[in-house]
Amino acid sequence: xxxxxxxxxxxxxxxxxxxxxxxxxxxxxxxxxxxxxxxxxxxxxxxxxxxxxxxxxxxxxxxxxxxxxxxxxxxxxxxxxxxxxxxxxxxxxxxxxxxxxxxxxxxxxxxxxxxxxxxxxxxxxxxxxxxxxxxxxxxxxxxxxxxxxxxxxxxxxxxxxxxxxxxxxxxxxxxxxxxxxxxxxxxxxxxxxxxxxxxxxxxxxxxxxxxxxxxxxxxxxxxxxxxxxxxxxxxxxxxxxxxxxxxxxxxxxxxxxxxxxxxxxxxxxxxxxxxxx
Length: 277
Prior knowledge:
Blueprint: H1 6-11, E1 22-26, H2 32-41, E2 50-56, E3 76-81, E4 99-104, H3 121-133, E5 156-161, H4 183-186, E6 195-199, E7 218-222, E8 242-246, E9 266-270
Parallel strand pairs: 1-2, 2-3, 3-4, 4-5, 5-6, 6-7, 7-8, 8-9
């Protein structure tokens, strides 16, 4: 169907459709606030298994998707939008999530952040302040209680930045969007992750939260043109079977620790002209 207002989205009453297994939502323009309110109105039933959201311009996710236990059965999420790189930590508490595909689609111009919807003006201001400090923060945890691992069931993760901006124009430069977890979260994340894929990201180095994932079997880089190095600790990936790096022209050296990957079956480096043998 096609909905053009929050009231229409709520009238769809997806929350009552207990047999709904897959939900696809495509946004076509609209302000950040309108997108956020629309997505809130599309709250599905807790039985949902697959969720796909395209073209989302909201600055944050709705309450039903923030990992607070509402979607205990969702196994696959694919989401694209202008602020997607901010959401990674927010999805870490979904207990059954196995496949996560996130794509940031940059704005044509950097626009000023706008206020987002919330239960009250005061709580909204407080959340905005906290998000400025750590935009990817996950749910609050008690400092005296060991935190449960983030992404406890995740097996496949793909993070990408679109080659086109939100208006469909080829982007000539990057805003440097970065998918990150908070420092206190990254030490206890991805216990079952098998495949990790980075497409067209602007990292010079791989962030620490993705460097030590013992269960990882496949590590792929596609078009990461700013990438300068692969971490020396790559030999900590004892289960790694596949390592591929495509089109990273600034990559000059590969760590000698790659030789210690006893289970490596496939190794490819293509389109890295400055790599020193």
